[in-house]
Amino acid sequence: MNTPISVAIHKFTSCDGCQLAFLNLGEQLLALVQRIHIAHFAEMGPINPHAKVDISFVEGSISTAEEIERIQTIRDNSRLLITIGACATSGGLQALRNLYDDGGWLSSVYASPQHIQSLALVKPVADLVRVDFELWGCPIDRAQLLYVINDLLLGVTPRERRDNLCVTCKGEQQVCHLVAHGQPCLGPVTRAGCGALCPRFGRGCYGCYGPAPSINSTALANRLQGLGLVPEQIARLFHGIHNNAEPFRQTGLTARQQDKTP
Ligand code: SF4
Ligand code: SF4
């Protein structure tokens, strides 16, 4: 009998929402554990953070010196390392503090900031170690997660989603909120993967799957300005969940700069 593939799920600075995508697999998770061995997954039960495994899934951004050491150990112990979710792939919401280089956020949030020992900048995992595959989203989509695991079990390299959300949205025959209703929507620049959830429920996309490859976010910012949004509103749209991912980061900064130009 073949040895089952060993898997670890690790948490860094994050909200646990992407780990829940594993638990929310429900019956499919029960079928999966017949085919894989889960060596470490604190949220589910098994705890062995130093296990040497075939695949490590990593949730969360790197925010402390201890996390730098831990991610390097995990890299050494893993044949493949896959980041799951916005925090791990681009830094997540907590990277908003990277936009403020004066450290003023510390004293505005904490009564005793001298006790906080965070890194100066929040970092995505790929800034510290080699990453073999990235699953985007906030949280990740559990169907996508299952596809990736099944591909790896079959010995196939998982396919990266490279299309933007509009492709999915039009495939769902949605009336375009941007074109038909003049509502802000980040779909033209956002990576597909969520099944156009927000447009299907009557609102524009807010970019939680991060920037798609080969996009023109400046053109979308200009279009949003044409709809009547002021630069600060445009900056806030781009500086959402993937504020630290290029080109969202730069497009938001450019809009904010326009706001300051007399
Ligand atoms: S990507 Fe979103 S859902 Fe996943 S851990 Fe980060 S904040 Fe939570
Ligand atoms: S609603 Fe948004 S995602 Fe859908 S087609 Fe229009 S711009 Fe694209």
Describe the structure.
The structure is a single chain. The chain has 262 residues and is an alpha/beta fold. It folds into two domains: 5-153, Rossmann fold, CATH 3.40.50; 165-260, no CATH class. The chain has twelve helices and five strands. The protein is globular and about 65 Å long. The termini are far apart. The model has no long low-confidence stretch (mean pLDDT 94). One iron/sulfur cluster is lined by residues 14-15, 17-18, 59, 85-87, 92, 138-139.
Give a brief outline of the structure.
The protein is α/β, with parallel strands linked by helices. 37% of the residues lie in helices and 11% in strands.
Could you name the ranges where pLDDT drops below 50 across 5 or more consecutive residues?
A: none
Overall CATH class of the largest domain: Alpha Beta
CATH architecture of the largest domain: 3-Layer(aba) Sandwich
Q: Considering the protein shown, what is the CATH homologous superfamily of the largest domain? A: NADH:ubiquinone oxidoreductase-like, 20kDa subunit
H-E string: EHHEEHEHHEHHHHHHH
As a whole number of angstroms, the C-alpha radius of gyration is: 20 Å
The CATH topology label of the largest domain is Rossmann fold
Small molecules in complex: iron/sulfur cluster
Give a short account of the largest sheet: 5 strands, parallel
The dominant shape is globular
Number of strands: 5
The order of strands across the largest sheet is 2-1-3-4-5
Fraction of residues in H or I helices: 25-40%
- Domain module count: 2
- Which class best fits the helix and strand makeup? alpha/beta
Mean pLDDT: 94
Cα distance, first to last residue?
72 Å
What share of residues are in beta strands?
A: 5-15%
Number of alpha- plus pi-helical segments? 12
